[in-house]
Design brief:
The protein is an alpha+beta fold and about 375 residues long. The chain folds into 3 domains: about 15-165, Apoptosis, Tumor Necrosis Factor Receptor Associated Protein 2, Chain A, CATH 2.60.210; about 175-290, Potassium Channel Kv1.1, Chain A, CATH 3.30.710.10; about 295-360, Serine Threonine Protein Phosphatase 5, Tetratricopeptide repeat. It is about 35% helix and about 25% strand. The protein has helices at about 25-30, 140-145, 175-185, 205-210, 215-220, 240-250, 265-275, 280-290, 300-310, 310-325, 325-330, 335-345, 345-360; strands at about 15-25, 40, 45, 50-55, 70-75, 80-90, 95-105, 110, 125-130, 130-140, 155-165, 190-195, 200-205, 230-235. The strands form 3 sheets. Strands 2, 3, 4, 5, 9 and 10 form a 6-stranded antiparallel sheet that branches. Strands 1, 6, 7, 8 and 11 form a 5-stranded antiparallel sheet that branches. A 3-stranded mixed sheet has the order 13-12-14. The radius of gyration is 26 Å and the shape is globular. Residues about 1-10 and about 115-120 have low confidence and may be disordered. Belongs to the Tdpoz family. Pathway: Protein modification; protein ubiquitination.
Length: about 375
Amino acid sequence: MSKRSKTWTPTRTSMVGSAALQLKVDYEQVKQLPTGTAVHSDVFSAAGHSWRIDCYPHGSDKDDTGEFFSIFVRHMSKTTRVKAIVEAFLMDRNGEPCKAFTRRSCVHDFSINNDGDDKNCSGDDADDDGDNWGWSKFVQGATLEKYYVTEGHVTFGCTVMVLLDDGSIPVPPSDIGIHLGSVLDRNDGTDISFIVEGETFGAHRVVLAARSPVFRAELFGSMAEATRTSITLHDITPKTFKVMLRFLYTDELPAEIELGDSSNEMFQNLLIAADRYALDRLKIICAKKLWDNVSIDTVSTTLACAETYNCPQLKSNCIDFLLLEENFKEAALTEGFALLVLKFPLIIAELKNRVRTYHSTPSVP
């Protein structure tokens, strides 16, 4: 009988402390700084270790083009070693972290003895040199200036989660979307192109087929498109197709603010495209975004979209919104409501029935 010489019990990495800090930057002042020059936050403490946010308005490397803001978190307690996860984010104009510009590291060994090549970490623009971790291309300066500067300032946030190293092997988060997005950006190995209003978009048949049953039928079925290398699409704009194509590769959408001032219209167009190509998750995401952005001005067009493209929950929510007398009185004066009455008389009948039910229900004392 074989005999084990050593018993090994798997262990886990546990968090022993965390801290968060915001760095508010005077945009007009810092945009004059040269490439490679940083502004720093106050030093803050997490689990007994000292940390600092370093913000480079024109990039951290002197060879950078100056197009991007770089954000780094530096471990200031240089004589000690610590493992931590770092999350950095940009605050939007409502004072909330912007999802599109939220980045999280893997478990990183902050140590002066670290050679700066953490094999457990990945990311197209992630950088480390042992005692710091960050992103050299965190956000483009032009995007930041256009959408995120508030009263002359822009705010970055950072959370540091310090870990107790008990011998476990850290598993980095999935980054398949990042890599597939890079493949799309570089046009590596594309075997199909789409022409939309004169613009050409390269793609990969196998990716589209894996993500959409409609594309699978078109590109690998008996349809004429299966043998073609270029397909012209109608009834979709280049901007909508570009965003949908990126979603097919990355499973993510750009931040609403990056879709421009008409983001509500974009989400409606994306929902229509998602319905056309049977992209159920994208369709639900768009429905949620439309509901999150609903207002007196948009509720009628959103309700019409929900009815046309079979979004029952969005439809029900919009009707509930109109049940409030103040909302209904104002919405009824909009052009969108007039079109709703003309195109969808049954919705108006349903709304009237819901109003009767709503007002006849006795209130609970």
